[in-house]
Automatic annotation (TrEMBL):
Species whose genome carries this gene: Lineolata rhizophorae
InterPro entries xrefs: Aminotransferase_I/II_large, Asp_trans, NHTrfase_class1_PyrdxlP-BS, PyrdxlP-dep_Trfase, PyrdxlP-dep_Trfase_major, PyrdxlP-dep_Trfase_small
Upper classification of the organism: Eukaryota, Fungi, Dikarya, Ascomycota, Pezizomycotina
Chain positions covered by the region annotation Disordered: 1-50
Name the UniProt record assigns to this protein: Aspartate aminotransferase
NADP in keyword set: no
Amino acid sequence: MSPTRNPSSNSSSSPPTSHHLSRPTTSASSASSSSPQPLRSATNSSATTNNAVPTARLHQISAQMNGTQIASPFGADVVPKAPEDPLFGLMAAYRKDTFDKKVDLGIGAYRDDNAKPWVLPVVKKADALLHSSPDLNHEYLPIAGLAEFTSASQKLILGADSPAIASSRVASLQTISGTGAVHLGALFLSKFYHPAHNPNPSVYFSAPTWANHHQIFSNVKLPIATYPYFSPKTRGLDFDGMLAAIEAAPRGSIVLLHACAHNPTGVDPTREQWRQIADVMAARAHFPFFDCAYQGFASGSLDRDAWAVRHFVERGFELLVAQSYAKNFGLYGERAGCFHFVAGAGAEGADTAVRVASQLAILQRSEISNPPAYGARIASAVLNDAALFAEWEDNLRTMSGRIMAMREALRAKLEALGTPGTWNHVTEQIGMFSFTGLTEKQVLAVREKDHVYMTKNGRISMAGLNTGNVDYVANAIDRAVRENP
Ligand SMILES: Cc1ncc(COP(=O)(O)O)c(C=O)c1O
């Protein structure tokens, strides 16, 4: 579990048990280590036809002799072609598939029982209110975003009665959804987090984690390491491994934690386990960074899903939170999210928050100037109105309830079929995803034979299941497991 500066592969095919980080062929470090080669361009492309090779080469030489063309500094040895994002590649393959019973269990987006995207009824209402408002305009938002949105977001994640809010220890900025919040936090840490006892700290991710964590943190040049998280044997949490690794990490390391509904495993620590994680992190002076992309979506309760974050705040930790409204509002494309810095519980907390906010504003200004308004306005309308808020909670229960029902149905069908292995983990895991334990071979078999699409690591998006396809998927899994033991 040694820290490394290289991101692990962004491929979701990396085995869930691997704590070892490999160097991707496209990493910036491998690219920048080779020197640019002049005179190398399209002539080397495998897509160039045999006839075109000499012609293109002649044109190039003649252009260079005439001084009209300078060799591109971005030759293939400097900018190699990157592999397609595995998840978006899977989506494209699914779209191309013409089979009528195909099933998409890849992307983490909610679908209703007819496999259709669901616009939350409360979002429709808020949208109508927004458009009928005489005050609606298209002015820039402030750099930190819509103030009523960021303050409501603080209350949502930290609790309306949070001591951190009461003592003005929270600095919040509206971001480009959860990804933007994770990025802003990563950038802030890379610039400002250099504790004296560990001036070049690593960030520790669960193994596995959301693949984008590796890309986001390596982009800002933070060294990356991992802690064990998922036990393939129990298909649950490797709690001892996790705790031991966090304990062994150099003092003052950054530890990235999924607040709830861990992606990709669907496995969360219990409250008692969270307490022990907090104990070890306090003893080792580690810095917690919570990624919260599924609040309310996991258990159906906004408060329950925020418990871990609130516990760490109560314990007096200084910490970061990345908050996404993509899943719990179904506002995937509107990019509504929020970033929070919570200063420690000491007397200087409010002052720290003011200084940090001023630097975050500079980072935000240089990257996006100011955030997009539409999604935040919708979320804000709901978060700041008691009746709409209650309706939102109801909509959340509809989504989480349907997902839980699909967990029950899939497990029941697999058990009824006598599919080799145990399937209790399907109902024990929580949130959008289930880590089925299917091997890569089995995953490919269900795709090729039955047109059921899931990521190579065996993760399925539970929202892709519905009453019309769950038996079909269970039968496909059953066959793949039996034929590919
Ligand atoms: C763990 C985790 N963090 C962050 C995100 C960010 O999502 P978005 O940028 O769509 O809000 C996701 C989305 O899948 C996620 O699973």
